[in-house]
Write a structure and sequence with these properties.
Layout: H1 13-30, E1 35-39, H2 41-44, E2 53-58, H3 65-79, E3 83-87, H4 93-102, E4 104-107, H5 111-128, H6 134-138, H7 141-160, H8 163-167, H9 174-185, H10 193-220
Parallel strand pairs: 2-3
Antiparallel strand pairs: 1-2, 1-4
Helix pairs in contact: 1-3, 5-7, 5-10, 7-9
Length: 221
């Protein structure tokens, strides 16, 4: 006689979503997730007790793949189910619209997090290059690596800011900031550290003032 495996149905979608919110949201916040949302079979009311839990996340630019895996493992332990973590930035264009349309928000995006990443990176670059001349910088591999990494974070944080937000502050060179990150990462013939030094000396002081002013304005609202 053939024994059929029975797949138990999950609780009603609304109740299950509330349970997931209560359990997952504190974990996501503890990992400094900037934005998160549920999607997939749980949201559509099609999940069974064996279904994975699909969660969209935005992580800060300084978080690594290991951080993403650590978050996944902690969520799986707390929820007692497999979890699929998908970063918003990796959504396929053909699927993005449908997924975002059904998304149930867990953490709403706060643009201040990205601005704070930019401001912190500029402050760190100032510390890395304090008392260095251009010649000192060009001979200091450790300072070069640290500055380039922080410029990449500035570019990544800029890309995470929504277009309508950037359009509110047209004097800030958002496009150049984002493009700088791509040039640094994809430079086939190495990084021109003379140009990097020019950015540090000529561009970052003014940019720091602009970002700080925007943050002050947002905090006052």
């Amino acid at each position: 006689m053939t024994t059929r495996r029975t797949v138990q149905s999950a609780p009603p979608a609304g109740r299950e979503i509330e349970r997931l919110k209560e359990t997952a949201t504190p974990i996501l916040k503890r990992h400094h997730v900037l934005r998160a949302g549920l999607f997939g079979s749980t949201v559509r009311g099609e999940a069974t007790s064996d279904s994975d839990i699909d969660i969209l996340v935005d992580l800060p630019p300084h978080k690594s793949l290991l951080d993403l895996v650590g978050l996944k493992l902690e969520l799986e332990e707390a929820l007692g189910r497999p979890v699929d973590l998908v970063e918003y930035s990796t959504l396929h264009p053909l699927l993005e619209g449908r997924i975002l349309a059904e998304e149930v928000s867990l953490i709403k995006r706060d643009d201040r997090f990205f601005l704070q990443d930019i401001l912190e990176s500029i402050t760190r670059i100032e510390a890395y290059t304090h008392d260095l001349s251009e010649n000192d910088f060009l001979q200091n591999n450790q300072a070069q690596d640290a500055v380039v990494r922080r410029l990449e974070i500035i570019g990544e944080a800029t890309k995470n800011l929504p277009r309508n937000f950037r359009q509110m502050y047209p004097d800030v060179p958002w496009q150049r900031m984002a493009g700088m990150r791509d040039v640094l990462i994809h430079g086939y013939f190495g990084v021109d550290f003379k140009r990097v030094w020019e950015v540090v000396e000529q561009d970052l002081p003014g940019l720091k003032q602009q970002i700080a002013a925007i943050l002050d304005r947002l905090d006052a609202q």
